[in-house]
Design goal:
InterPro entries: Transposase_17, Transposase_17_sf. It comes from Micromonospora musae. This is IS200/IS605 family transposase. With about 140 residues, this protein is an alpha+beta fold. The chain has three helices and six strands, in the order βββαββαβα. α1 crosses α2.
Amino acid sequence: MTDIDDIRTGRHCVFAMHVHLVFVTKFRHKVFADRHLSRMEEILRDVCRDFEAELVEFNGANNHVHLLVNYPPKVAVARLVNSLKGVSSRRLRQEFPDLARHYYRANKLWSGSYFAGSVDGAPLSVVKQYIEQQNRPT
């Protein structure tokens, strides 16, 4: 069951849509330290805001990240993912030159693939807890 606080309104609709996203680094290389993940979370929140979406939960490890995003029905998940991955890759490369050695062919940080799972109701709290418990590198 969806919590009343998770229900949003648009111009012509009422909605509660969440997607669990997982992005993996190219070749699963261990790229991220805690400082990279902290900055990445800020970047991803900004991108979500541009889509009128909300980054509800974020966490990750040295070679992947988990996101729980509340998004409006007008947003195509594939377009959101493309922007999240593209902007985060570009901004991290600019702000952390030490990551340059982890970019492969055409300056790609992320693998071309991703996981996207729709979530709602009780599983939403389970997904949030799962993401919270992901280990961050030290």
